[in-house]
């Protein structure tokens, strides 16, 4: 088992990054996703959706770790996250 | 493909929802949709065969779950989810039967059904969404409305002491009893997965925000404000005695998995009963035949203390 990361080695740690997808017209603007995202990725936008609510958008997408809490806590099945693996430079 | 169609993205939960009925009727800021998401996630975690799961609901905002979830489901009359589920389970014992209904449906009009299903330790799972009120019909007092809370039938504040749902079910004999709020989505989903795999009566209370009625009657703000309040008041204590943790207007909301035992289920008791009866009858016939009667006497040995020495 590899215990230590080599300080100047070639192996870089891999972290999971998320890609936030928002089905805007399903959103009812409750703000649950914005409040409970542990990385403060989301903000409610100023624009209106078809139903007249303000859907969220990923303001700091690079912070998203694809924990998918937003996906679980959204009462309207309006937000979900796809994992994408990336190497940190 | 038309432009309109391309707009609709595939949500990972879409396969467990009846998409022709989405968007659902629940209010903005209502916790019910989140509870359904936790349920869908819990079933996926438990890796149960979706064709072997049946959802039964009663009447109320929560009762509509049966109509939104894409599993075999049945929307019963008010309060009768448990009787329907009882028949369903006993006739189809390989099904995982989940009752998903409201506090009013399960503990007011359906209160006795629930207590007796727990007493019998019937092998079903009950998810009870406690929003402290009758949401659908306009905010009447429920048997869960905390002391002092306002409702449309308690304009001066409620003076009826409420039921403690986890206390009742634990005392009645449920094999598994847990309480979570909508905020603890992951723990709730884990509990739902545990219950899906567990034998006997499993009861999960979900304290959930009703933004439109309970929050408005009690100046609780929006659904999100109620969520924040629940989060602040939540204390997780798996060792708490479920009968000692009633819900009030502003004290702690003690959450956790309070009961997790392996008592025999109703069907196991039925089978044992039949087995005993069959064995007894077989012996009876043996004893009846003359030959066996003599044999019986011959082999009879007294081992009582009076016969020794
Ligand atoms: C036999 C009968 N009595 C009364 C009603 C009216 N009714 C409909 S829903 C409901 C209360 C539901 O409360 P709860 O189970 O807490 O569901 P919620 O809407 O809060 O999720 C009542 C009394 C009914 N539909 N049928
Ligand atoms: S997946 Fe997690 S980190 Fe990413 S937006 Fe959702 S809640 Fe935030
Ligand atoms: S939780 Fe869902 S419905 Fe609420 S604001 Fe976020 S995306 Fe919209
Ligand atoms: S009335 Fe309350 S429980 Fe019913 S959908 Fe609205 S917020 Fe939810
Ligand atoms: Mg209710």
Notes on the structure:
The complex is a heterodimer of chains A (89) and B (309). Chain A has a single domain (15-83), classed as Alpha-Beta Plaits. Chain A has two helices and four strands; from the N terminus they run βαββαβ. Chain A has helices at residues 32-36, 69-73; strands at 14-22, 42-44, 56-58, 79-87. In chain A, strands 1-4 form a two-stranded antiparallel ribbon. Chain A has a two-stranded antiparallel ribbon with strand order 2-3. The model of chain A has no long low-confidence stretch (mean pLDDT 88). In chain B, 46% of the residues are buried. Chain B is α/β, with parallel strands linked by helices. An eight-stranded mixed β-sheet of chain B has the order 2-1-3-4-8-7-10-9, with helices on both faces. Chain B has two domains: 2-263, Thiamin diphosphate (ThDP)-binding fold, Pyr/PP domains (Rossmann fold); 269-308. In chain B, a hairpin with a 5-residue loop joins strand 5 (133-134) and strand 6 (140-141). The A-B interface holds A 21, 23, 25-26, 28-32, 35-36, 51, 53, 69, 71-78, 80 and B 7-9, 11-14, 17, 22-24, 26-34, 36-38, 41, 182-183, 185-186, 189, 211, 222-224, 227-228. Magnesium ion (MG) binds at residues 60, 102-104, 131, 133-135, 142 of chain B.
Do you know the CATH architecture of chain A? 2-Layer Sandwich
Total of DSSP H or I helical runs spanning 4+ residues of chain A = 2
Assembly level: heterodimer
Taking pLDDT < 50 over at least 5 consecutive residues as the criterion, the unreliable ranges of chain A are: none
């Amino acid at each position: 088992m590899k215990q230590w990361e080599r300080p100047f080695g070639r192996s870089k740690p891999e972290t999971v990054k998320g890609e936030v997808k928002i089905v805007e017209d399903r959103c009812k603007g409750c703000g649950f996703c914005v409040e409970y995202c542990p990385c403060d990725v989301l903000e409610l936008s100023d624009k209106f959706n078809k139903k007249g609510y303000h859907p969220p958008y990923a303001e700091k997408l690079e912070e998203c770790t694809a924990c998918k809490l937003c996906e679980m806590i959204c009462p309207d099945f309006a937000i979900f996250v796809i994992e994408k693996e990336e190497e940190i430079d | 493909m038309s432009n309109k169609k391309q707009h609709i993205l595939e949500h990972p939960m879409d396969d467990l929802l009846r998409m022709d009925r989405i968007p659902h009727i629940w209010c903005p800021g209502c916790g019910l949709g989140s509870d359904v998401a936790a349920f869908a996630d819990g079933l996926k975690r438990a890796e149960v065969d979706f064709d072997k799961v049946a959802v039964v609901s009663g009447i109320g905002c929560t009762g509509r779950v049966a109509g939104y979830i894409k599993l075999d489901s049945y929307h019963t009359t008010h309060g009768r989810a448990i009787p329907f589920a009882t028949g369903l389970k006993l006739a189809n014992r390989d099904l995982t039967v989940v009752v998903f209904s409201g506090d009013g449906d399960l503990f007011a009009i359906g209160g006795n059904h629930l207590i007796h299903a727990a007493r019998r330790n019937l092998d079903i799972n009950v998810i009870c969404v406690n929003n402290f009120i009758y949401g659908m019909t306009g905010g009447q007092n429920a048997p869960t409305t905390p002391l002092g809370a306002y409702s449309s039938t308690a304009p001066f504040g409620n003076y009826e002491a409420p039921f403690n749902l986890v206390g009742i079910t634990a005392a009645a004999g449920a094999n598994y009893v847990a309480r979570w709020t909508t905020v603890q989505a992951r723990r709730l989903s884990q509990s739902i997965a545990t219950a899906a795999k567990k034998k006997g009566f499993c009861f999960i209370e979900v304290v959930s925000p009703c933004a439109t009625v309970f929050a408005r009657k009690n100046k609780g703000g929006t659904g999100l404000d109620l969520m924040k309040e629940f989060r602040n008041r939540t204390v997780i204590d798996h060792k708490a005695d479920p009968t000692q943790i009633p819900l009030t207007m502003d004290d702690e909301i003690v959450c956790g998995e309070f009961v997790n035992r392996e008592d025999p289920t109703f069907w196991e008791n039925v089978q044992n009963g039949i087995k005993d009866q069959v064995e007894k009858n077989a012996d009876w016939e043996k004893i009846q035949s003359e030959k066996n009667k003599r044999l019986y006497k011959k082999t009879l040995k007294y081992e009582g203390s009076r016969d020794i020495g």
